[in-house]
Structures are given as structure tokens and as C-alpha cells.
Automatic annotation (TrEMBL):
It holds the Pfam family DUF3391. SMART domains: HDc. Residues 89-110 are annotated as: Disordered. Coiled coil: none annotated. It comes from the Bacteria. Residues 158-354 form the HD-GYP domain. It comes from Acidovorax lacteus. This is Cyclic di-GMP phosphodiesterase. Residues 92-104 have a biased composition (Pro residues).
């Protein structure tokens, strides 16, 4: 049986099933082992992780009277919270007075998912080159090309305006080698979508996008051997990686030409609302709005992306895991707004419908967070592939609904990404 417990109740002899937090927050590259070494226990308790899942069928249980939650109890609470999202009033942040409205730009009208995926692929190709150039300049101690960065943010913002699901989903399909660069692009797009969701004006949306694009620039100062290490980091290597917010802040401050809000997000995107983050252990309202936004967008893209040492999690499963950490990690209302901006079942999520068919989410619904468009392609009743068919769950004539999330690692459909994106291979 799986139980979620506080770190202080973890003891030798327990079977550690999973950390309640992103793998970016601890130096362990694996879980799922019996805790035998007191040094491992001390290292876990020294991390910013507050809770873990243990498997009582494979190791010791908690002592009588110790608080814990079962997997079923946690899932039920998340289901309840997500079901109430549409009942919540929109979170609207009141920024400073907006600047004069900019001149209208072409190419910002709503677009279909299919047409915008093609445009997003081109943006990804261009973006990768721009971000690689920025990191190269930073490594050589040069100021970044702020005009080029701003032009890229504008292109990304326009794409998100036309169809938010396309670029956000496509940028998730990064390789391990592409990760550092395409992660910046993905977080930029996620920041823009979240900014629009909470009602920021165009100028502040641009600033949010720039913060997403530049948030990890400090990784240019981290040795590539550490940054791309395929296995377990040493404690010292983990300390080195955690220095990247300060490096990025100093690089951009010295180079000049970057908004103070962007500098703040670069420095503080790993802070947590409970004060356990880094580098300054800020807490609650001490953390700026844009840094809180960056924290959410950064973690989501990181945990849904493949890394040298770990496969990314399914998008909808990632949101549920983040929901488990919200009280410690993220601003709760901002996280709720983030879920609204990408959907309870983001594009690319593998789901099971009431009919027993399995499909992948291809686009968000216009009416409800629980009624996206799903491309079904497998029957669990016959255990066979079936001709792909797009089912619009918002259609009043359909009896279908999502009844479960499915684990892509269990099914290992080789063409899962192609089914929703239309690309047989990554376009960059």
C-alpha cells in the first residue's frame, strides 16, 4: 500500500517509492529502494523535499498515530479540487497602468491546432538557434542580444495568442541534448499563456515571456559535464547546479537592458511559498508574482520532458503531482490559473474513455476543462489498434467521457507524439 508521509517520519527499513517533488530538488536520481543507509536518510532529510511516498508492502509501515494519506485519499482530494476549478472566479492580477496600446500586428487571429502546429514548428527551429546563441554569448561573458530575445518573445506570444496548445505542446518534445535550450522556449510560452489567463496587459505579458526565456541563462556558467550528467549527481555537483539562478542574475544585471522584474524571476524562480527554496529562502508574499509564475512553468516543463537520466511524466499526471505539492511549493491560486491555461488534460495526455477506447488529447475544449478533443486509436476490449478517430467530448451527441489517465510507459505506443502533433519526428 502506498502512503504519503512527512520526511521527519521516514525511517530506515521503509521502502521509498517516490519523492513528493521535482527531481530537480534533490540529488537522488532514482527512488524505489529500501532505505538502509543512514547517510541516505540524512541526505533526504537535508533536501527541500517535505514529503515522500512509501510502499508498506515492501518495507516498514509508519508507527501508530503518525499522520499519513493513502494514494486513494490523495487522488480523491485532487479530483475534488480540479472539479471545482471552473467554479472559481478568474484570478485577475492588477498590474500597474498599461502603456499606450501598441500598433496592431498581423498574424494574431485565432488559428486551428493543425495550422498553428506547423507555424509553431518553424518558431521552434528559429528559437533553438536564438537561444543557443544567447547561451554562447553568456558563456563568453558577452551581453545577450536583447532585441533578438524580444523579437523571439513576440513571435512566441503571437503563437500562443492564435492557439495556446500548439507551441506549448510541441516544445515539450525536446531531446535530452536540446533540453537546456528548448526548455527556455517552452517556459516562455507557458509564461505567456499564464499571463493571459490572469489578465496581465500586453506589456506585462511580454515581460513574463522574457522572464521565461531567460530564467535558466545562468546554466551557461555550469560545466556541461555536470549539466548533462546522465546519472546521479554528487552533493557538490548538486550545489553547483543550484547556483545557476545567481549566475543568471549577475550575467543579465551586468549586461544591462533587462527589466528588473525579469532579473527578479531569474534569481528567484526556485523559491517556494513555504520558504524552503533557493537562493534566498523567500516565503509567501516575499516572492514576486513573476517569480511565482516562473516557478510553476519551470517545474511543469521540466517534469514533462525527457532528461538523460529520467523519462518525462505524462502531462496530466504531472499536473496531478504538482497539485500534491502546491501548499509547499507554489502559490495555490496561480497554480489553479495555470491548470486553467493548459487544461486538466493537456495536449499529449494519454486517456481512457468510457467506451474502453484509449486516445491522446489533441486540443482543449472550448466549453469545459474536462471535455477536450481526443484522438482514439486503441481498443482495450479487443486489445488492438483501431483506425484513429477524433472525438470531441464537448459534442452534446457523444456519450464518451474521460474515465482514467493512462501511463504511456505501460503502453509504449511508439507513435504517441505523432498521433497528436502530426510530426513523425521532431521538426528541429
Amino acid at each position: 500500500m502506498l502512503k504519503r508521509i512527512r520526511i521527519e517520519h521516514l525511517t530506515l527499513g521503509m521502502y521509498l517509492h517516490e519523492f513528493c517533488g521535482s527531481w530537480m530538488e534533490h540529488p537522488f536520481w532514482r527512488a524505489k529502494f529500501v532505505l538502509k543507509d543512514p547517510k541516505d536518510l540524512a541526505r533526504i532529510q537535508a533536501t527541500a523535499i517535505h514529503e515522500v511516498w512509501i510502499d508498506t508492502s515492501k518495507g516498514l509501515d509508519v508507527a501508530d498515530g503518525v499522520s499519513s494519506m493513502s494514494r486513494e485519499e490523495v487522488d480523491a482530494q485532487i479530483d475534488t479540487d480540479f472539479s471545482r476549478l471552473e467554479e472559481l472566479p478568474p484570478l485577475v492580477v492588477a498590474p500597474p497602468p498599461p502603456p499606450p496600446p501598441p500598433a496592431p500586428r498581423r498574424g494574431r487571429a485565432p488559428a486551428s491546432m493543425q495550422s498553428e502546429l506547423a507555424a509553431a514548428a518553424s518558431i521552434c527551429v528559429e528559437s533553438k538557434d536564438v537561444v543557443i546563441s544567447m547561451f554562447s554569448e553568456a558563456r563568453m561573458g558577452k551581453a545577450i542580444d536583447s532585441v533578438g530575445a524580444q523579437n523571439l518573445v513576440t513571435e512566441i506570444s503571437d503563437s500562443v495568442t492564435r492557439n495556446p496548445g500548439a507551441l506549448i505542446s510541441l516544445a515539450r518534445l525536446k531531446t535530452a541534448d536540446d533540453y537546456t535550450y528548448m526548455h527556455s522556449v517552452a517556459v516562455c510560452a507557458l509564461m505567456v499563456a499564464l499571463a493571459k489567463q490572469i489578465g496581465l496587459n500586453e506589456e506585462h505579458t511580454r515581460v513574463a515571456g522574457m522572464a521565461g526565456l531567460l530564467h535558466d541563462l545562468g546554466k551557461a556558467a555550469i560545466p556541461l559535464a555536470v549539466l548533462n550528467k546522465p546519472g546521479k549527481l554528487t552533493d557538490q555537483e548538486f550545489v553547483v547546479v543550484k547556483s545557476h539562478p545567481v549566475h543568471g542574475y549577475e550575467m543579465l544585471r551586468e549586461g544591462g537592458g533587462v527589466d528588473d522584474s525579469v532579473l527578479d524571476a531569474v534569481l528567484h524562480h526556485h523559491e517556494k511559498v513555504d520558504g524552503s527554496g533557493y537562493p534566498d529562502k523567500l516565503k509567501g508574499d516575499q516572492i514576486s508574482l513573476i517569480a511565482k509564475m516562473a516557478a510553476i512553468c519551470d517545474v511543469y516543463d521540466a517534469i514533462t520532458s525527457d532528461r538523460p537520466y529520467k523519462r518525462g511524466w505524462d502531462p496530466s499526471e504531472s499536473l496531478r503531482r504538482m497539485a500534491e505539492w502546491t501548499n509547499d511549493h507554489f502559490d495555490q491560486r496561480l497554480f489553479q490559473a495555470f491548470v486553467k491555461s493548459i487544461g486538466i488534460y493537456p495536449v499529449g495526455s494519454l486517456v481512457r474513455l468510457a467506451s474502453g477506447r484509449i486516445g491522446v488529447v489533441t486540443e482543449q475544449g472550448s466549453k469545459s476543462l474536462t471535455t477536450p478533443k481526443v484522438k482514439v486509436f486503441f481498443s482495450t476490449k479487443s486489445d488492438l489498434r483501431i483506425p484513429p478517430e477524433v472525438v470531441d467530448l464537448a459534442d452534446p451527441n457523444t456519450n464518451e467521457k474521460i474515465v482514467a489517465r493512462e501511463d504511456p510507459d505501460k503502453w509504449r505506443f511508439p507513435d504517441l507524439n505523432e498521433l497528436w502533433s502530426g510530426f513523425a519526428e521532431r521538426p528541429w
